[in-house]
């Protein structure tokens, strides 16, 4: 017997994940108004076989996927009130897609990396405590003491974060994090998909790690002041995680002779893979420069047009855990076939899974729900290879 509530929740989740409104889905089903879809999603209507097949066609799944027992995991909301500048529809789509991905990972039996992300027990309002805690997270992520974080996404994966690409920015935000059944999830806009600079992507991932590690037991902020406080804490964590104070200052003295100039900051950016503007903020945090010096540097940055296009391009980063886990669980000659096998096993269109594994700007992986999961798929264009401009140096001991 079909559980109407489970079917309704699955329909709602896939509809939201694919960015469809109830009215749009109703129109695709050939129905006037959204009354049927609304009743279906709230469990007040049990679909017959014909409607179930039509829903599966439009949502890119099998009828078995829609009719199986629902996933009742607990998920947190993002720790940001500032997402108000982003479309609620887009934010909800990302969160729903996270749930679809989470259930897929469990459903096909992928081996997860254990969650070893430390949780802060100190006072997140204490900047020195954040600096110390960032060092603990670096150690958990197997980053050599004082070393450069060569790949922030891989570091996040090593402590158990599932990191997935995001097709667009969320207003002025480049990332989003939440916990699903306690497990950390990060979504980030990738340079290859959205044109986001690599240094900003790296900082965003570190920022989201900060939210997950410091704010897991907190509800989303309710006021602008509270939101600003949480954001500042995550910013401070990201800065300390990417540029630990002692080695950064040692490098600065060696390479720049103790002067904070734009030329010196460019050289530091080449080593540490962070934005020049972020380095200005970092030197202000560490009280190497005062407010007047920082404002002077910001004016110079603006005058050179570096607010949008800084010199020293940092290469893109990508996640590897999901693709490796898929290839191991569904071994085939290439990832394309592993994706299709895994998707068919779970009852989803392969484009869902492709969207979680493709970091390059490849239009062939956009979710187009015009085929059933069991239908033949067109050949997939290999992901675009992104040129790496700056290769971060191998870690050295300090």
Automatic annotation (TrEMBL):
Residue ranges of domain HTH cro/C1-type in the record: 11-66
Pfam families documented for this protein: HTH_31 (PF13560), Peptidase_M78 (PF06114)
Alphabetical list of SMART domains matching this protein: HTH_XRE
Xref: InterPro entries: Cro/C1-type_HTH (IPR001387), IrrE_HExxH (IPR010359), Lambda_DNA-bd_dom_sf (IPR010982), Rad_response_metalloprotease (IPR052345)
Signal peptide bounds: none
One GO molecular-function entry: DNA binding
Gene3D superfamilies linked: 1.10.10.2910, lambda repressor-like DNA-binding domains
Region of interest (Disordered), ranges: 372-398
Transmembrane segments: none
Protein family per UniProt: Belongs to the short-chain fatty acyl-CoA assimilation regulator (ScfR) family.
PANTHER family: ANTITOXIN HIGA1, BLL7220 PROTEIN
Name of the protein in question: HTH cro/C1-type domain-containing protein
Species of the source: Tessaracoccus flavus
